[in-house]
Amino acid sequence: MKQNQIIRKIVDAVLTVLLLCLMAYQVTGEALHEWTGVGMTIMLIVHHILNIRWYGSLFKGRYNAWRIVTITVNMLLLASIALTAFCGMSMSAHATPFLYGMVSVSFARRMHLAFSFWSFILMGLHLGLHVPAMTAKLKPGRPVKTILPAVLTVLAGIGLWLLIRNGIPDYIFFRTPFAFLDYEKAPVLVFLENLAQLFFFAFVGANTARLIRRLNKKNDSTENPLIPILYVLIAILIGVIPNLMKNNQSVSPGWGASQNTSSVLNETNHAEEPASNRTSPKPHAAAQIDPNETGDGFILIPGGTFLMGSPETENWRIDDETQHEVTLSSFYIDPHETTQAEYIRLMGENPSSFTGGDLPVESISWLDALRFANARSTEAGLTPVYTFSENSVTWDRAADGYRLPTEAEWEYACRAGTDMPFNAGKSLDADHANFYGHYPYEIEENYFNDSVLEARPGLYRQTTVPVGSFYKNKWGLYDMHGNVNEWCWDYYGAYDLQPAADPTGISAGARHVYRGGGWNDFGKNMRSAYRAAAPSALTAANLGMRLARNANAAMTGTVTAVETVQPATAGGKILIAFFSWGGNTRGIAREIQAQTGADLFEITLTHPYSTSYNTVLMEAQADQRQQARPEIANPLQSIDQYDVILLGYPNWWASIPMPVATFLESYDFSGKTILPFCSHGGGRFGQSLTAIAKLAPDSELGEGLSIHYSGGSTLPPDVSAWLDRNGIDKK
Known about the structure:
The protein folds into three domains: 3-245, no CATH class; 299-418 and 484-519 and 527-563, paralog of FGE (formylglycine-generating enzyme), CATH 3.90.1580.10; 574-725, Flavodoxin domain (Rossmann fold), CATH 3.40.50. It is 37% helix and 12% strand. It has helices at residues 3-22, 25-50, 52-56, 65-90, 105-129, 131-134, 142-165, 168-172, 187-216, 227-245, 340-347, 366-379, 407-415, 584-596, 613-626, 658-665, 688-695, 715-725; strands at residues 299-301, 304-308, 324-328, 331-333, 386-388, 392-396, 402-403, 485-491, 500-501, 508-509, 512-515, 532-534, 543-544, 548-550, 558-563, 574-578, 599-602, 644-650, 673-680, 700-701, 705-708. Strands 16, 17, 18, 19, 20 and 21 form a six-stranded parallel beta sheet that branches. A four-stranded antiparallel beta sheet has the order 1-4-14-7. Strand 19 (673-680), helix 17 (688-695) and strand 20 form a beta-alpha-beta unit. Helix 1 (3-22) runs antiparallel to helix 2, helix 4 (65-90) runs antiparallel to helix 5 and helix 9 (187-216) packs antiparallel against helix 10 (227-245).
């Protein structure tokens, strides 16, 4: 074999391996994916140099069926790969960041996703077309010649089945702008599935080549020319029939909690998008107020009157956001969220899930935030604000120490004189805030046509970022939208709609307010008026704080916050209640039952959701918008006999499915403990805990369990550890 031929075969083999690596994004990660793409681009250039004579032959000789087919496939492959590479470089955060934004990131993402799969298909066809020539000198025996085609046909059928099951048709025909990837799938399985899918198209290409060869050799009757067609048809039947027989054959992967693949409606959609923080602080409108002179860097917020809440015309508003007039005294507030370095220095520990000194502290409870505020006051020689008792906290309003802002102060500071959904305008994009960038404001109703959005889908970083990484608002405050939610002083309750001065909320309750949205929140839940709530003991990876201080020495009196719900207690009869659409949540519930022996109740509907993914996507969105309460087909007569409710659901549109809302409103949960568990695609609980907290206000909300998709091999130990942490007895 000539040296040039050997080199060409090596290059072709390397290209095939690189292609399989590129299609395994969930294994390689973003940075390696980008550099692998660069490597493949280079190898393709080498490939074309080695085969340069082919271009010279295009204008020579006669064109028969074989030449037309091969040239067509080759040209389409070249164009598809070129478009894929160009769009990839336009989104690159690692390999070619200097080319970022050559075209709209939203457009680039759609094109890159679709044409990467078209390149995959065409590469398979290209390889297959050359298989007969590469194997022409092989002389297999009759047993091999008989058995091998049947085996290859079955393998090709399996490849087609996987292709349909994984939703590839939705990508290549531009039916979805995002790639839904199962990050829990074993890497070996990812590569084997991609290899099987590639094999199907190579199988089609090889049989196409055989058919053309047989038709060209009319005098050779050793093989019926229809045999290759028969093989392909059988492979198609093997791949298509199992998918047609499935009841819930949504070819696009499901929501993080409802299917065995990925999801759009859950907390974690995984679009193939750069995931690094490429933003740096950028100048906004000049701050209209100056930092104070006390040396702590806090910013003076001038007192004033504003309309708290949202207008009825604001999209995705919630009924608890009724507008009312509030007047506030001046106060100081930290321009940044409290960092881990600050917390560790005073508290001697770091509870955060994502670690880094300049990252915001998170996974802290409301009580943790108050204790930190007192510790910082003591360190600074100021009067601590809070006094703790068994089931209450008293705030000395005259004290000059650090404290949490009230809910009204937080919204006032966030708005900074604006009246739009966000302090930056009608929407936010991923370059302005750290949030679930795939889901900007109003994406729900424009999911299949994001071109009409104020902000396009963008980067989802899946982590907190250093404080101050983004734009500041008009009053000099960073990250009022996104990064981490921020605890406020107030108990959650209905607003007093009368004009109020320096309100502090209701005096007793079971849920405290937090504001601002976090790194895993949808755009709609980062609005200035959006109210979230949770028990004082709740900790979450997207929940932190920002401190404030009095600026008015005339403030007097005290405010006492009294807890109306006692901490959860172990023991009591347990009910596992869950809603599942595609199966992931059901699998988690059954694992919990296997470990506890508890009663199991599946929430089913009188009028079930569609089995089509795209249809249920819209149905779920419409139900959330209307706050619908779908009728449960098999309601329990009573839950009085249960003390602990393990409540399961998929994360749909960053919240609970509305059937779960129906369940929560159908029974009295007073004095009961609710332990949530959800399946998700990357966003964990989203705002589902807030939804549960609001719908069951007199229950104790314990530590939840978020499972990525179906949980994989780690599900049993994850469930076991969660049960232990909540004091739930196991069999």
